[in-house]
Amino acid sequence: MSTPGHNLYGQHMEKHEVEDLLQPSEDTLAPIIHWLESSGVPAQNITHRSHLIIFSVTVAQAENLLNTEFREYHYGNATVVRTLQYSVPFVLRDLVNSIQPTTRFGRPRPQAAMMTEASTESWTESQTADLLGFSGSADSLASADSPKLPFGPKELLTKYNETFCNSTITPACLRGIYNIGDFSANSKGKTLIGISGFDKEGAYLTDISDFLAVTADSGQHINFTYQSINSGVVPTNVMNASGTYTYSMEGNLDSQYAISLARGTPVVYYSTGGEAPFLPDLDVPLPSHNGTDEPYLNLLAVLTGLDNEHLPDVLITSYAEDEQSVPYDYANLVCSSFSLLGARGVSVIFASGDTGVGSACLSNDGKNTQKFTPNFPASCPWVTAVGGTYGVKPEIAAAFTSGGFSNYFPAPSWQLNTMKDYLTKLGDKNKGYFNASGRGYPDVSAQAVQYLVYNQRNPTFGAIISNINNLRRAQGATNLGFLNPWLYTQGSKGFNDITLGHSRGCAGYDMFTGMRTPVIEGASWDAIPGWDPVTGWGTPDFAKLKKMMTNG
User: Fold this and answer.
1) Which of 263, 302, 516, 539 falls 20 to 30 Å from 60 in CA-CA distance?
2) Would you list which residues are annotated within the binding site?
């Protein structure tokens, strides 16, 4: 259903078809339900859907159930209840994949602010405000009494100007660079963009309105909704005791750019709370070092429970974390869950990360092996990973953009020929520091430098795919859905190949903790003709993709 030329291409599955496919046998399900109920979990607190069992218990009940002891862990202002290990009855060992929240302390990192290509660290909230000439909290950037950007007159902010766009990226710049033009969604297209929000990130309708007032060349209708999942933060409860908003720059800007570039398409923001398992490394060496939220499964449990007509056609997520910090079983469960969305026509899009070939560059398995450290979920073969570029005519690979080869997931069948060709060109460069048989990423790229604050490559690419879907739906065709088999065959013809620049990393300094890390001399990936682990197949050309994938 995702491979062009196949007789099932575009025939996405319905919710009940996926659930029937994954439904465990009664021999698997019954012992687990019996264990829960016999351990004191009330039957009304147990919900079963397909391959998931969701139950609610007190901490005391969880301790008895899992033969463990939960404690409060504190780091800074963060407090979280966790255990370091748990157990299940031996007879259930092969039936239960994971139980959460239990041992997870870490959380994914939002994509960093890259005001210049040379920058390798994200701006702090105060630095960002000072840089842009605002005072107060970072969220006041978009909601000041007289909204304006300090970059120049309005005509520069609302029209494509190549010179200006080399130093500042606005929605108008992206519309020009990627040939989106004045596209607006067709009301017959019935498409929906979903944006993932984690780590108490919010998005504010007033900020979106102010942003469009400054960057749009004409009035634009906003169709924006907000959904809280698992007690995810909502706009009414994100104001702290001092009367300022909590840090929500990523959520705001993801929403603003998606709405700007997919003009007329409804956008829903999924604010999700929760936790998952964690293995420390140099990037996140302590419990809750950078927070406590990593709620992919909480989000996926809700989305996979929706009927197809309520699913987004594109799901945009601008978060990443070291692959090795996520236990393999959990990463595999999350990754396979993303495939369920792809099977139902959702394009799942993740940023590749902002650590180049790696930041920690040291294994966390006790062997302390020096190696490149790939990012997850970008390394999952069932998502489309977006790398970063900068500049206009030519576009150049951004040095900080993450890419490489997974240590968890092998290269899938649709990527094998591409990986073989690339590795032949690569020769012995970086030999021993990466898994040559792993899934290669990113798959594509977009502009990632010179934004207002956070780079917006992810909503840029996601909006372009949603625009293509809108045209296809209006013509009676289906969503593109899972993109990668198409990208590695026909789809790459609709992209601008990036052959300048390279990524870097493993330079002896952890960009998140400031800790000393291994130095790997010459650690880099080069942008070359064809696919590469810096920019993938390159950046999208909407006009070419429109011609390829629609009837005009």
Assistant:
1) 302
2) 497-498, 530, 532
